[in-house]
Specification:
about 625 residues; alpha/beta; seven-stranded antiparallel beta sheet; about 30% strand; globular
Amino acid sequence: MPGQLELLAPARNCDIGIAAIDCGADAVYIAGPAFGARQAAGNGIEDISRLCGYARRFGARIFITLNTILYDSETDRARKLLHEIEEAGADAVIVQDLSLVTIAAEEGIRLPLHASTQCAIRTPEDAVFYEQLGFSRLVLERQLSLEQIRKIRKAVSCELEFFVHGALCVCYSGQCYLSEMLAGRSANRGACIQACRSRYDLLDSSGKLLVKDRPLLSLKDLNLKDRLSDLAEAGITSFKIEGRLKNISYVRNSVRAYSAEMDKLADGKKYCRASFGTVSGGFTPDVGKTFNRGYTDLFIDGKRGKWNSADAAKSMGEEIGTVSYINREKTLLRITPAKGMQGLVLRNGDGFAFVSGSEVTGFRGDICEGLQVRCKKIPGLHVGARLYRNLDSAFEKEMEKCPPVREIRVDLHIIFRRLESGFSSDVTAESEDGRKISARFAAGNTAAENKERMLGLAAGQLSRHSGCYSFHVKSIDTDNAGEMPLLSSSALNNIRRQLAERLDSMPCMRRPLMNKGRSMPCAPVHAAATYKDNISNGIAYALYKSLGAEIKGMAYEKEHPAGAELMRTKYCIRHELGLCPRQKPGTKPEPLLLMNNGRRLILNFDCAACEMTVTGA
């Protein structure tokens, strides 16, 4: 049996989820009414049910994010919500808080549990712990290499999921407490202020200013579109796109691009897609044209690169050239295209951005003629400024007006028979997911004068589209009588429509999704639990105690322990600046200081683990 490959898309709401499925997603992850790790992206149960119904047409899956930590006052609501999610038709629940392991077992919830990336699973030992708690899938930490993924794959039998595209947290997911420390808004509660995207001054231990006013903790966005084969070989089965707060054009574009790449892998022998249906037509995807901070493949090869998003934590888009002329009023400019952009075409409504000092300024082009742009007065714009296009209006219109079509292939075998009562059309239809129909349709009493011409007309008319199905006549013939009925186009169309209706009445055959089932956990002893285990309620506390753990601290949000690591990360500012001892022998990895509006953060460097930590000063 070929291994399943799943493209997992984000959705802020039901309509975006439907668009993702239409563009080729095998699964969609979306928040329910509460406890999703993006407070601004909740959805009602009715919408979840509607999305699940649409996904069923293609055997696609819907996963619900219930991945915040929970307080004691919230566990009863979470208990009820699990039942509502299951009744709505969801396929799995993505969780962080381990109280839900106990609750799911007590409530008899049949849905698979997926361990969120917020669980910071980055070692084989972490993976074994979560698998033995009953998780059917592990969403791995982003900052892993292929070699680390292979080691985890050898250690567990459950499914592995990995982010392949989108925004990156600078630290290990689920163990970032900076937002909570600075503003009382917990990332683990879905309320992150994204302090990693803020601008900082960097000072050495003597107080010398090294870097001024830059987003030093902001990473580029992840893009592993060209590495899907490597990840599949390493054991990843679900390829996840980040972006539950992104708009519909971002989701359409990224899903369409990654689906096309996955189709190249899914040859039906070694790999197959986890859902059904072929996506065709519509716009041509280009991930460079929707929101990104520049792209990186991060640590996938076990090597460091330039991961910082440089001058801006915002989406700059594609660099198109430099400003070569500005009129006195700063309302008209001309552009000299960058290398490789000689065929640049600008259109009215395009969005542009440039960096002036420490600020990123964006503006719209009201009238674009050739390489000349008329716009409102733009303070700070100057000759020589590097100009980026962060909104391609023509591309956005193309995505909106020309969406692709996703259809289930149905093969038809047809025999026309001469019966005592007249002609019949005996049709066998088999969809690519395995649904099979045998039906007989009345075909009138009149024989066609030109049999071959009528056979050709029938084959052409029946090899068309109806609903979400693409029909293909594989064989067509007559019985021993050799006569062919005379059929109108409308009669043939009616046969095709009736076949589509009968297929709709049958559930799409779905590929299996791993489900380890619910039972009270019997996991290996967890030696000690600290604030990094994010224990925030009594049920999770009791679970850890039952595993033999010594509880050394509750969740950071509950206690704010002094001196706690606010972040730990593979990203290293010393390495980015060429100040790593491995880059510059003799350099001491002394602490550095980040400053922002009088707030100080201390950077320490664990060179043995090749990691950087952030603590409060």
